Amino acid sequence: MKIKIDMKKFAAWFDDRLALTPIFKYMTHKEVPQHEHSFWYYTGSSILLFLAIQIVTGIMLALYYRPTLEGATASIERIMTELPLGWLVRSVHSWGATFMIAFVLVHLLAIWFTKSYRKPREATWMTGMMLLVVSMMFGFTGYLLPWDDLSLAATKVGTNIPAAIPVVGKWVTQFLRGGDDVTGDTLTRFFIFHVCVMPLILFAILAIHVLLVQKEGMSIPLKDELAKKKVPSLPFWPNFVLREVVIWLVLFGVFMTIALAFAPSLGPTADLMAPAPEGVKPEWYFLFLFQTLKIFPANMGPVTGEFVAVIIIVITVVIIFFLPFIDNKPEGKKGKVFQYLGIIGVIYAIVFSIWSLL
Amino acid sequence: MRIDNAYFTRRKFLNSLLGGWLGAVAASFIAPIVKFVWPPYKEPDEVKLVFADFSDMKPGEVKNFAWGVKPGILKRAADGSFIAMVGVCTHLDCNVTWQPEKRQFFCACHDGYYDEEGKNIQGPPPKPLRRLDVAVEGEDLFVRKPGAGAKA
Fold first, then answer.
1. In a domain, A320, yes or no
2. Contact yes or no for A309/A296 (Cβ under 8 A)
3. Measuring CA to CA, which of A21, A96, A271, B64 is 20 to 30 A from A345?
């Protein structure tokens, strides 16, 4: 007997149940503006590319990784030496984190300098800031998982930083560590944050973020908006997607080349009793914060230098989070001030990062 | 429906009653979760060591011991008594190293230095290394949190 499937009927049945036609219709009718800053639109989808790589390689690594004091380093050693292509999977996951954070930062700066966060896209910016913090938390929790001497020291420092905040700080540190000190429980906890809790948080915020982008459409340059100029546009499907795919392929090529050539190393297993190793460094995107903490003096009047540094960092993050409301006249003088503050911030981060490596 | 002189309608009253009840139920679920997540690990009140392991230390010599999951430092003073400290930097919690040739403690995380008494002398550490009490009782050497006293 020959079974004949009428694809048209099949599709109609699905559409009847799931009502997908409006989504396809939206995709094919969506237009992407074309202007001198259109290039930055691609940074968003590039982040998604690396997120997809992180999810796939993360699940692969989790099949063999063991989040315990005794097993963690050994399991990574096994992944790197025994499992077929294991070294490459780990390298791709490690470099994927770097690429993803790098594109998140470029994406953020592009929006800062084009002031795309202006009304009505304030909520898009704020969810974006949340995604930045979540991405950095992914990096921070992931850095501990190999459980080698460098990652232990970095985690001790990182989890102790909130303790400088009055009232709630101690509580946060205990929550992150699973007690007063970094122990095997901290490792297991970080693993669960990394593979279970934070992905849930990330997907929830990401869904809102992407939905808001669809709802408001792509922002056009400020001067075109003020001049009420009609900006030419490109259909999202297939023209824009084709360009995106080309960029993805180029990026993927560069990325794989680096991952193949520079696989991450694995230090000796962390020993809770051993002194901190020389040359403790966090991941590159925390270097400027690391250096900031280093230059503050021990005590500043009645409080510790660490407290002052942490408070300054927290206030800065809060200001950036609410930036669309503070920089609410982007075409005026105040808008220029925030443009310069952005440049100063970038220079500060670069100089301090390089300084920390000297 | 609104009764005369009432501040809200009956629907609003019943809604807040139901909402309040749901909130209370949620809180009663969250409380045990919070209790479970914030775990009980605390550092020890006292640690019992074998005195014989440390009795041959010369004045000025420094040895490590386990203060819970952290390194403890035991130093013999010039008069033969013992000084105990927690070997964890007071800046951001990294373990410190004893540098015998310079007679100082060093924290590699942010370049902090302490002298041999544990006093912070250079870099970001805001406080001296934490001191612990030491008592030799028979064949045992007890290290205790200051003021913890002996267990009966």
1. no
2. yes
3. A96
Domain count, chain B: 2
Q: Is A286 helix (H, G, I), strand (E, B) or coil?
A: helix
CB contact under 8 A, B69 and A272: yes
Confidence band, pLDDT 50/70/90 cuts, at residue A58: very high
Predicted ipTM of the assembly: 0.79
The model's pTM: 0.89
* CA atoms of A45 and A55, how far apart (whole Å): 15
Q: Which amino acid is at A62?
A: A
Domain co-membership, B78 together with B15: no
Among A276, A278, A296, whose Cβ lies nearest the Cβ of B124?
Answer: A296
Q: What is the pLDDT of residue B149?
A: 58
Task: Confirm or reject contact between B134 and chain A (CB < 8 A).
Answer: no
Residue with tokens 């010369």: B58
* C-alpha of B68 from chain center: 10
Contact between A160 and B92 using a beta-carbon 8 Å cutoff = yes
Q: Does residue B5 share a domain with residue B68?
A: no
- pLDDT confidence band for A252 (50 / 70 / 90): very high
Q: Mark which of B25, B40, B55 sits at the end of a domain.
A: B40
- pLDDT of A257 > 70? The answer is yes
Q: Number of folded domains in chain A?
A: 1
Instruction: Answer whether residue A136 is part of any domain.
Output: yes
Residues B92 and B126 in one domain: yes
Please indicate, yes or no, whether residues B52 and B36 belong to a single structural domain of this protein. no
Taking alpha carbons only, the member of B49, B83, B89, B51 closest to residue B66 is B49
Provide the 10 A C-beta neighbour count for residue B15: 12
Structure-model confidence comparison of residues B60 and A80, the more confident one: A80
Distance between CA A186 and CA A159 in Å, rounded? 10
Query: Do the domain assignments include residue A265?
Result: yes
Residue B16 lies in a domain: yes
Neighboring chain B residues of A298 at a CB cutoff of 8 Å: 91, 120, 123-126
Contacts of B113 in chain A (CB under 8 A): none
Provide the residue range defining the domain that includes A97.
27-276
CB-CB under 8 Å, A278 with B108: yes
Domain range enclosing B54: 46-144
Q: Please state the rounded mean pLDDT for residues A142-165.
A: 90
Closest chain A residue to the Cα of B71, Cα to Cα:
A273
- Assess contact for A51 and A100: CB atoms under 8 A: yes
B147: CB partners within 8 A, 6+ apart: B133
Q: What is the CATH number of the domain that holds A95?
A: 1.20.810.10
Q: Which residue has the higher pLDDT, B56 or A123?
A: A123
